[in-house]
Design brief:
This protein has seven helices and no strands. By secondary structure, it is an all-alpha fold.
């Protein structure tokens, strides 16, 4: 099976696992609605809990966003893995994959500060999306050049699929993230 066909197959597996680990939160960090439109935990988990215990702290910074945390962790993993790339790639593949992975986080920080204006916010999120897709391309090259193992490449590629999913959701529905005037 082709590397990226496996990555796509793994993506659906990771989404299922990721949703369980996030406690019902989407990649952007918001709690998703369950059956019947209920927010948050299942009915069995709600018993015995007060409303104040069920609601999580509001997101005050871009660093609180699950999608930002995933992107930051992925960029750090890329940094560590890319230390083993050949020296002749220092000014090409190594620099490019590090730059694009870090740029996802940097653009997200900028987007967070531009929440006063929907168009500016969405434009920066689009930049994040482009940088995440570029990072996936560099991951493909690193695997094909045997600088990354297929397994590491699949894991990183899948992580960036989750990041892209969170960004696309925020782009498609920016209103909850915008500053109230």
């Amino acid at each position: 099976m082709h590397f990226f066909a496996i990555a796509c197959w793994k993506r659906s597996e990771q989404r299922s696992r990721g949703a369980e680990e996030q406690g019902g939160r989407g990649a952007g960090g918001q709690r998703s609605r369950g059956a019947g439109g209920q927010r948050g935990r299942g009915a069995e988990e709600q018993r015995g809990r007060g409303a104040e215990e069920m609601e999580k702290e509001p997101i005050k910074s871009h660093k609180d966003l699950k999608v930002y945390q995933m992107a930051f962790d992925a960029a750090m993993k890329i940094f560590e893995l890319s230390k083993k790339f050949p020296v002749e790639e220092r000014y090409s593949l190594t620099d490019q994959i590090r730059r694009s992975s870090r740029s996802v986080c940097a653009n997200m920080a900028e987007a967070w500060r531009k929440r006063r204006y929907e168009a500016a916010f969405v434009a920066k999120l689009n930049d994040c999306e482009s940088e995440a897709a570029e990072t996936q391309t560099w991951i493909e090259f690193a695997v094909k050049c045997n600088y990354l193992s297929v397994e590491s490449g699949r894991e990183l590629y899948g992580t960036y699929n989750q990041i892209l999913g969170g960004l696309v959701n925020m782009i498609a529905n920016p209103t909850p993230w915008l500053m109230k005037r």
